[in-house]
Amino acid sequence: MTLPPHLRQAILDRAGATRSPTRAETDRRTVALALVLPMVVALVSSVVGRAREARSLPYLSANAALAFLLAAGVTAAVLWFRRSSLGFGATTRATVLLCLGLASPLVVLLVSATGEPHVGVTGHDVACFFMTLGFSVVVAASVGLGLSKSEAVSPTRAAFAIGGIGGAWGALAMVFFCPQTGALHILVSHGMGTCVAIGVAAVLLRRKLDAAAL
Amino acid sequence: MVSLAFGCRIEEGLGLAWLAAALRSVMNPQDESLANRAMDRYASGDDSAFAELYDIVAPRLYGFLLKQLRNQALAEDCLQQALLQLHAARGRYVHGSPVLPWVFAIARRVAIDKQRRGSTERRIVRDDDEIHEIAAPHGDPHGAAHAGQLAERMLCALEKLPDSLREPYLLVREGGLSMREAAMTLGITEVAARLRVSRATRALREALQQEGFLELPELEETET
Fold first, then answer.
1. Taking a C-beta distance cutoff of 8 angstroms, is the pair A180, B78 a contact?
2. Tell me, what DSSP letter sits at residue A189?
3. Quick check: pTM over 0.90?
4. Which residue, B111, B139, B206, B207, has fewest beta-carbon neighbours within 10 Å?
């Protein structure tokens, strides 16, 4: 079956009529959105947060360093392994990165949860839930926008992994923001906020990442 | 690089020659390299490279979409959309990475999207050009009729294959992708792609044999 000749001109005309960013422009945008904004979120949370209220400086520093290494590590891993135009590519690699993305914020949360659990839900628990959700979604959205149209094979998996990146940076932001160390508070408020954020980010970003979506 | 070779015994000089020939038509590595270079230039901002890229990629992409969707209008629509998506995402092309699996992955997802929206009126498309090409050298009207019948049965058998087998088969057969490229397009391992193409070929052979058609080509995969 031969290719209809009218298609060629129609496609070339339509492509010529719409401007698309070149690789250099795309790279600049990706770096700005995928790296700068998460750092800004972490910085803002450290300035406005109440991190020093109940914790010693060495404890806070160790927690923050671990959270930063995990967040930066998972971001670098995901960006590094997505160097192919196809995105994550093969199933095994995508699954490993997905697990890495999802696990890193949870590791931060588990390490942070060292204090005695309190009983009952307080206003602080609710506030922390929404702060975690907000920080994580903002970061995930910025990374996702930076990587828009970059996933040709499995946009859903990529969206979840980027949700994980958002969660990791959100967990770092919460280390600075929230002074509480109660295990129940950390796991329920921060943990639930992270999980919801990963889900929200995946839903929001799936089509944005898809190279085939209009 | 993986290529396909077919040991093919043809009954009465016709048989499944067209199938074997098509399966042998793995994309020329030179074309592949040209496509990569054209895409690289296009991603760097050279707009004129898009026409070159179209000429290399579009015929194979169209063949794949046509057999996958079995609807000419829809295949044209998907081809157009896939190439415009490629245009929109050109900044995402990574220097040195193979362009064909990327384009085919985009086209495949566009086709899936279209099918999900329910706009597909699946109908069998018979490749009359291909049939004519096979029958003409024999100058035999019975040959043409036989080839036509065979092509229709072949398309019916393809229709019955599950997507997981039909897609890799068509990527290799119509798209001219290597096993590795087909695997990259589908996000599976090369071994899995090879297995699926082999199963698809076996299923098609069995289906045609049940219809009473001749001896069919044996698939051999060789590393080159």
1. no
2. I
3. no
4. B139
